[in-house]
């Protein structure tokens, strides 16, 4: 299936415990080609915050689209 036709799931706050657990569940499903995943973080360039995700998800980390979410921006 063409990737752009897959349903897009957006998961917020993935550097927190709950968000990372939800991301983990969707990554298990994404591996089966069911979803595209967009994950929001406050700063995707903050290595200290992103490193635990990189370590936890390994190769699956690269399949996630990470975007900055500015909580002050409507």
Give an overview of the whole structure.
With 74 residues, this protein is α/β, with parallel strands linked by helices. It is 34% helix and 20% strand. The protein is built from two helices and three strands, in the order E-H-E-H-E. The chain has a three-stranded parallel β-sheet, covered by helices on one side. The radius of gyration is 12 Å and the shape is globular.
Radius of gyration: 12 Å
The number of helical elements comes to 2
For the secondary structure, the number of strands is 3
Q: How large is the share of residues in beta strands?
A: 15-25%
Descriptive terms for the model:
3 strands, single chain, globular, 2 helices, three-stranded parallel beta sheet, 20% strand, alpha/beta, 74 residues
């Amino acid at each position: 299936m063409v990737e752009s036709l897959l349903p897009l799931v957006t998961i917020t706050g993935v550097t927190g415990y709950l968000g990372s657990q939800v991301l983990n569940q969707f990554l298990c499903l994404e591996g089966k080609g069911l979803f595209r995943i967009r994950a929001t973080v406050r700063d995707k360039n903050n290595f200290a915050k992103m490193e635990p995700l990189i370590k936890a998800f390994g190769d699956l980390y690269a399949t996630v689209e990470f975007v900055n979410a500015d909580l002050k921006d409507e």
